[in-house]
Design goal:
24 helices, 546 residues, Rossmann fold, alpha/beta, Glutamyl-tRNA Synthetase, domain 2, four-stranded mixed sheet, single chain, RNA-binding, 16 strands
Length: 546
RNA sequence: GGCCCGUUGGUCAAGCGGCUAAGACGACGCCCUUUCACGGCGUAAUCAUGGGUUCGAUUCCCGUACGGGUCACCA
């Protein structure tokens, strides 16, 4: 076979050589051990948790003085969605992930571009031409139906699927046949001519999993699709070589195609990057686990977390605890340190599929928010509300001091309250403070209802004095409790319930429901002072009548 | 079906030949307490399975089972 003739027939316009590109994209001048990595999403408009998960590469890169970049894998035109690139960038920016180079909203930056794969067509074709020249690639004119028939035949014969051996019908066709098809204008793809032996296992070092043994690839997989654009496999190898990527962090589902990536790197004589295959995020479905699915699981979308309003740092804290087994311990020892101060290590990454645990996320977020001051919570909530709850945003803007005071109840000190972990929950929790959103949700305590309800509230209103200290105020509550035949000490009531109408718990809960509409709320005295005397009296009187 | 990866309590997991097998979330109980939280103390709960290797296996090797992934001109 005259490979030079074939190469020119297939790629008449390609005049550059691989060497030209080697010169254009020289090795990066970075300190030893610097990690160069990236995220490489395809612009489908769906930004998912996995994208953020892999953005952990940023920590790795910046910890080592390396480079983190954004590449867009837009080789599948059919799936491309307008605005998807912006969506990725916005989401990453939201979570504080910074790119050193790559695609930006304005265009792109960096010396290793273009960073959109479709714009790198010439580069791929140059490498492809070289492979043809070496007799390592050939055109295949099979139609979709041909391939389907082949697959069915293999299924019937219980043979391995794929384009290989006797099924590789275009592998050794004479040049004349190829020329004839080309002249007819038949569509073709470029296939890799694999000499791999399925009996052979090749060792691959995985940054997370240690040594892996993979079967050598024996199929003639597709390098270039009929539109001349590469498949993921070929694009990945060319790009990560010429962009001088040192670490490829990706989901473990790529493990299945690792053999062809390794084969490509090796036959091209390029140094393989360190592959880091992360565990797939799983979810319980009935009694079995399964991969998080785009269609079934809203929590796979990154937007789910911003909508629910989990603070970004809290989301990171959760992700980090799932990703790095020693992070949780570190965080416990350094509760106030920024998670960026933690040294992330690949070796500590989990290799088994982690179940996604929303409860734990919530717990981490509550813990996180409980340590923040009212100012922080106020601005975080306001920012969230501006997009997801405009009415709340308007109320907060109208009465910032009131909202800050409300947020501040139970905050600070040794044992801060942990009432909410997300802005959505915060909005719900804080609703009772504002008269505009105050509603009665819980009923009156049984032991303090009816006649007693009037009696207690009347006395309480009579003695209520906003100049009192908390101690003075509570002493008065005790007086009323005692005077009306309730047990001042709940224990006493528990022991001899027949001696009392109830206990102080019933009295204070009555006040609580009157004031907040529910039985579980922070300290009554503090709440009253946030509401102010007028509103406090109004709510109490109103409840007395109702 | 072929190939690959994985398997420690309900969940996330530490462990990297010798331990009464950490810790966290969740559950439950007790204490604290004017409610709810918070906090403190405590309880229950785990090495899938069979064979090796070894003086000794959760740890190393092989098989089995189970779970997951993947076999496209999608990434």
């Amino acid at each position: 076979m005259d490979t030079a003739a074939l190469a020119n027939l297939l790629f008449p316009d390609i005049t550059k050589s691989i060497d030209d590109y080697e010169k254009q994209y020289p090795p990066r001048d970075l300190p030893a051990g610097a990690v160069v990595t990236r995220i490489a999403p395809s612009p489908t408009g769906f930004v998912h948790l996995g994208n953020l998960y892999n953005a952990i590469g940023e920590r790795l890169a910046h910890q080592t003085g390396g480079v983190f970049y954004l590449r867009i894998e837009d080789t599948d035109q059919k799936r491309e969605v307008a605005g998807a690139v912006e969506a990725v960038i916005d989401a990453m920016t939201f979570y504080g992930v910074k790119f050193d180079e790559g695609v930006t909203k304005e265009g792109e930056s960096g010396a290793y571009g273009p960073y959109r794969q479709r714009q790198r067509k010439e580069l791929y074709q140059t490498v492809a031409k070289q492979l043809v020249l070496r007799g390592l690639a050939y055109p295949c004119f099979c139609t979709e139906d041909d391939l389907k028939a082949m697959h069915e035949q293999q299924e019937a014969a219980k043979e391995n699927f794929g384009y290989y051996g006797k099924y590789a019908v275009w592998r050794d066709r004479p040049l004349a046949d190829i020329e004839a098809e080309l002249n007819k204008g038949t569509e073709w793809v470029l296939r890799f001519r694999s000499e791999g032996d399925p009996e052979k296992m090749i060792p691959v070092q995985d940054g997370i999993r240690g040594e892996l043994k993979v079967q050598e690839n024996y199929t003639d997989f597709v390098l270039l699709k009929s539109d001349g654009i590469p498949t993921y496999h070929f694009a990945h190898v060319c790009d990560d070589h010429f962009m001088r990527t040192t670490h490829v962090i990706r989901d473990e589902s790529w493990l299945a195609t690792l053999p062809i990536h390794v084969q490509l790197f090796d036959t091209l004589g390029w140094q393989r990057p360190v592959y880091c295959h992360t565990a797939t995020l799983m979810k319980m479905d009935g009694s079995s686990k399964r991969k998080l699915s785009k269609r079934k699981d809203p929590e796979l979308a990154l937007s789910y977390y911003s909508e629910a309003g989990f603070p970004q740092e809290a989301t990171w804290l959760y992700l980090l605890t799932v990703l790095n087994s020693n992070f949780e311990e570190w965080h416990l020892a350094n509760p106030d340190a920024d998670s960026r101060e933690f040294t992330f290590s690949l070796e500590k990454m989990s290799t088994s599929g982690a179940l996604f645990d929303l409860e734990k996320l919530d717990n981490i977020a509550k813990e996180y928010l409980s340590r923040k001051d009212a100012e922080f919570v106020f601005s975080g909530l306001l920012k969230w509300a501006e997009t997801y709850d405009e009415a709340l945003a308007a109320r907060m803007t109208a009465k910032p001091d009131f909202y800050k005071a409300a947020i501040n109840v139970g905050r600070g000190g040794e044992k801060p309250r942990k009432d909410y972990g997300s802005w959505q929950d915060a909005a719900k929790f804080l609703a009772f403070y504002d008269t505009e959103t105050f509603v009665l949700t819980d009923g009156c305590p049984e032991n303090a209802d009816g006649e007693m309800r009037r009696e207690i509230l009347t006395r309480y209103l009579d003695t209520l004095d906003f100049a009192d200290t908390q101690e003075e105020w509570f002493a008065k509550v005790r007086e009323i409790t005692d005077a009306l035949g309730y047990a001042v000490q709940p224990k006493k009531y528990k022991k001899n319930p027949e001696l009392y109408k109830g206990s102080i718990v019933d009295v204070t809960n009555l006040l609580r429901v009157a004031l907040t509409g529910r039985q579980n709320a922070p300290d009554i005295w503090e709440i009253s002072h946030v509401l102010g005397e007028e509103e406090t009296r109004r709510r109490l009187s109103s409840y007395m009548k109702g």
